[in-house]
Amino acid sequence: MSTKPDPSSKEAESSMTAPAHPPPPPPPPEDFHFKKSPFVKKLRTAPPDWYYKAPVSPPPVDFMAPTGPYFYGTLTDPCMIAEILGLKHEPELRPAYIKGYECKLWGQYPALRDAPNSIVEGAAYHISTVEDGKKLAAYETRNYRPEPCWINYKDGKEPLRENGSTFKFVGDPYALSEGQFDLKAWLRRVGRVKALEKLEAKVEDATRSKDNASAID
């Protein structure tokens, strides 16, 4: 029958001795305010067939657009472009459209495909360096490829038309679905509240300016 050891005995002394090396402290809690890059966010929301490879791989492209690529979908958000390129200020985009394409959906993202009699509307931004072009191409991933196109501007300013580039979808065509991309809905879905508020404010300002011009006429 075991008994409680005598506190004065060596056995009790050894059993009560503190360990020589205390256990390490627990790791610090994860910082939930850590800012994730737009590319990481896109990876997390990509469709399951992300690693699709085309039967014939497209040739490598050293992306550079002298007049700036034509942006559609998520890249019509100036805040998103500023984050990707590391700009201090939001860029100025010109409303524009291109012919010969149609827009489908790849998961929650827009995907341009060839369509001879169709028009896709969006906005254009001038890329000044090859490095910036590569950053945008990395954001779009290898499922998109820069392709030359004519950019037609809608703001009435010169030039009215320029030769530029757009990102065309080259991933699995069976992964595409019908639907319209709504930038406001997408910003709300991914929690980009400030960007949504700025976009709505710009739309209101543009509408107010148009109404004032009509009243003067």
TrEMBL record:
Biased composition (Pro residues): 20-29
Keyword terms, alphabetized: Transferase
Region described as Disordered: 1-34
InterPro entries attached to this UniProt entry: AIG2-like, AIG2-like_dom, GGCT-like, GGCT-like_sf
Signal sequence interval, chain numbering: none
Gamma-glutamylcyclotransferase AIG2-like domain ranges (all copies): 71-158
Source organism, top-level taxon: Eukaryota
Molecular function in Gene Ontology: transferase activity
Keyword hit for Transferase: yes
Family stated for the protein in its record: Belongs to the gamma-glutamylcyclotransferase family.
Name used for this protein in its record: Putative gamma-glutamylcyclotransferase
Originating organism: Byssochlamys spectabilis (strain No. 5 / NBRC 109023) (Paecilomyces variotii)
